[in-house]
Design a protein that fits this description.
This protein folds into 4 domains: 182 residues, 3-Layer(aba) Sandwich (Pyruvate-ferredoxin Oxidoreductase, domain 3); 173 residues, 3-Layer(aba) Sandwich (Rossmann fold), CATH 3.40.50.970; 68 residues, no CATH class; 111 residues, Rossmann fold (3-Layer(aba) Sandwich), CATH 3.40.50.920. Helix content is 37%, strand content 20%. It has 20 helices and 22 strands. The strands form 4 sheets. Strands 7-6-5-2-4-3-16-9 form an 8-stranded mixed β-sheet. A hairpin with a 6-residue loop joins strand 3 and strand 4. Helix 8 crosses helix 9. The longest helix has 20 residues.
Length: 567
């Protein structure tokens, strides 16, 4: 029986940790983008170095795609446990392709990837055979595949390069000649010029564009990829990258770097950020800039360390003791991740307060193609003054922002201390000065208001139902609503989380019904909206099993809520 896939196909690779699924995806992503296909991929991992079952979803489409799909059109299992692991996503239309002992499903086709690899010389080449097979299915030019493999393995010995070329060629022929499958997806030369990035790469490139020249972290999933990216960029850029002994060292080293005049960023996850609470308070007291990337994962404690969740908004919102201002951003697209990460450095330097960039495992590990970033009309603003002998680090000024000096840039003393202080930075217990300093710090939130990005409205302005989301749920939810084709429903996405934009209440109050979608168990964004505006959102769609939302489940859940209202 012929299996047809038109305009959009979901291919899932699944196997044990260590079997090379990410290697296959790495080859495919670049080859398919170079061939002109719209590409999206996302991965789910078990928390183990070997064994278990991991999977990577790859979507190829005639249209731009960047949302997670639950359905699987083609499954390529590399272990005998893969089918069982993904059984809830398999349908009667799913086609399972691979080794005979791993394809025990209704519709299956045997392709002996391992045997072909052994004929070439080693089972290790089975990943390249599988990549070639998928390229053959999608009619990617064979010569493009060969040229890419030669480039991809250029650092290896010629024998390894030659055998991988043979492997991708053999896989390509099987895929191209397979008569049981027909895939019809449009390609475009325009896509060949696109960027192909993960969320982690978008954050990292944004930091680089923002003038970041110091990065430190204690490795922690899923934030480590940002540290690794910045380390790779440091080879060609003036960046210091430091792996620190613990998270307390990370926050203090980052503050020390800003004090010395660097533009510094720390990257961590929720468990690591929890250890930085005292340092966050120090940041507030010394009015230091700070850019902090936090890739969320399920807690509490170690939780599910390789899974995804939007569970740390409250942690970031209330971290530290005492009252002080902060900015919280949560990009929903790669473009937002780049621009927000870039702009975070200027904002943090200007307002002398911490700026937090919230992502999550789903966001940092997802990859898709986008148009090039606009690098015009942006300047790196240092916001540093040359000090005079009478310099006062915490001087009261008309606009509420004290001039920020750094050591050895001028003749003044740059004195900072964790205790409450006077304008010169010296410790004080003067009650009047205490009140003035607290008010000065809090006043910065008023100053920030003019820079707040309004939430993004998708759909008609005269909506009846408003669906609200923040951060990484945007792309999947947007696709779900597009497929519902209900003109009475609009989408409101927040990428600037705190302080909330002044028009937030007006957006919500216009709707007859409001629904919020969050990847946590308590509706943390809904709580923030209510505490800030007094508006109580009608319905919540929450997910907290460690997996992202899919297009299909959001369509169903929103439809159920709409129909419930009609009854």
């Amino acid at each position: 029986m012929l299996s047809k896939f038109e305009n959009d196909v979901v291919i899932v690779l699944a196997g044990e940790a260590g079997q090379g699924i990410q290697s296959i995806e790495g080859i495919l992503s670049l080859l398919l983008k170079r061939s002109g296909y719209n590409y999206f991929s996302t991965s789910e991992f078990m928390s183990r170095v070997r064994g278990g079952v991991n999977s990577t979803e790859i979507r190829i489409s005639s249209q731009e795609v960047n949302g997670f799909r639950n359905r699987i059109d083609i499954l390529i299992p590399l272990s005998d446990k893969s089918v069982d692991h993904l059984k809830s996503r398999l349908t009667d239309q799913t086609l399972v392709i691979g080794e005979k002992d791993k394809t025990t499903y209704k519709k299956s086709i045997e392709v002996p990837f391992s045997d072909i690899a052994k004929e070439i010389g080693n089972k290790i080449f089975s990943n390249t055979v599988a990549a070639g097979f998928i390229c053959g299915l999608l009619n990617v030019e064979l010569q493009l595949c060969k040229d890419f493999i030669a480039e991809y393995f250029a650092s290896k010995k010629q024998d390894i390069i030659d055998k991988n070329i043979i492997a991708i060629s053999k896989g390509h022929k099987i895929g191209k000649d397979l008569e049981q499958i027909k895939i019809t997806i449009d390609k475009s030369k325009k896509i060949q010029k696109h960027l192909l990035l993960t969320g982690a790469e978008a954050v990292s490139l944004g930091a680089l564009a923002g003038g970041c020249n110091f990065v430190c972290a204690y490795p922690m999933s899923p934030a480590t990829s940002v540290l690794e990216n910045m380390a790779s960029y440091s080879k060609d850029n003036d960046i210091i990258v430091e792996q620190v002994e613990d998270e307390i060292g990370v926050i203090n080293m980052t503050l020390g770097a800003w004090y010395a005049g660097a533009r510094a960023m720390a990257t961590t996850s929720g468990g690591g950020f929890a250890l930085m609470s005292e340092g966050i308070s120090l940041c507030a007291m010394i009015e230091s800039p700070l850019v902090m990337h936090i890739a969320q994962r399920p807690g509490p404690a170690t939780g599910l360390p390789t899974r995804t969740e939007q569970g740390d908004l409250n942690l970031v919102l209330y971290a530290g003791h005492g009252d002080f201002p902060r900015i919280i951003l949560a990009p929903g697209t790669l473009e937002e991740a780049f621009y927000q990460s870039r702009n975070a450095f200027n904002m943090s330097a200007k307002y002398q307060m911490p700026v937090f960039i919230l992502t999550d495992q789903f966001f940092v590990d997802s990859k898709y193609n986008i148009e090039n970033f606009d690098l015009d009309n942006f300047e790196i603003e240092e916001s540093i003054v040359k000090t005079n002998p009478d310099y006062q680090r915490f001087a009261f000024t008309k606009d509420g922002l004290s001039p920020r000096g750094i050591p050895n840039h001028g003749k003044g003393l740059v004195c900072v201390d964790s205790d409450e202080h006077d304008e010169s930075g010296h410790i004080t217990e003067d009650f009047d000065i205490r009140v003035k300093m607290v008010d000065k710090r809090k006043h910065k939130l008023k100053l920030v208001e003019k820079d707040i990005t309004p939430p993004k409205l998708i759909g008609k302005e005269n909506y009846k139902t408003l669906v609200i989301c923040w951060g990484s749920t945007f792309n999947t939810l947007k696709e779900a609503l597009e497929e519902l084709e209900n003109e009475d429903i609009s989408l409101l996405h927040f990428s600037w989380i705190y302080p909330l934009h002044k028009d937030t209440f007006d957006y919500l109050n216009k709707a007859d019904k409001t629904i919020i979608v969050e990847n946590n168990s308590s509706g943390q964004m809904a709580q923030l909206i209510r505490s800030t505006t007094g508006f109580a959102i009608d319905e919540e769609i929450l997910k907290y099993n460690g997996l992202p939302f899919s297009v299909e489940e959001l369509k169903q859940k929103i439809t159920n809520l709409i129909n419930k209202e009609k009854k």
